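Render this sequence as a predicted structure.
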Amino acid sequence: MSANDDLPSLRQAERLILQAMNADLPVIGHCLGGQLMARTLGARVAASPAPEIGWQPMRVIDSAAARAWFGDPGERVVYQWHQESFELPAGAEPLASSATCPHQAFAIGPHLALQFHVELDAHKLALWSASVDPTFLRLQREHDSVQGGAVMRAQATTALPAQQQLADRLYRRWLGLV
């Protein structure tokens, strides 16, 4: 699914995002949700330079906002599944990037948009990594940035616990518990 698809449910989601942001209710968007947040705020969502599927490195930038959300700057390995990515809306603070996707995360006050799937758990990983969708299989053959299911599951041994620690930090900050 693309944030640009002409679906009433996506436009409704954008209206809800804007209503929540205008009411000072913290909004968080994972992947498609982050793209919808960016679109809502006037930024473009378009094809990424290359798809990212599986465990991929991203770099947390060195800024006060990035430190508040992610901690120390540097590399994190996160789970990705996207072919499109967002540009930064006006007023957004960039938080992270990758070689394949220049904008991995942004914040506007208490609102957080992510291009990756920090919400991933073992059950979701098992389902997604077992995909036999023809598009996924084609992307796997064509791009180094697309991992096969066996590689995703093997890397999950170390990558998933680290990502869950990151998720805990992000969600605590987003909920105002930090």
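Summary. The longest helix spans residues 149-174. Residues 8-174 form a domain with the Rossmann fold fold (CATH 3.40.50.880).
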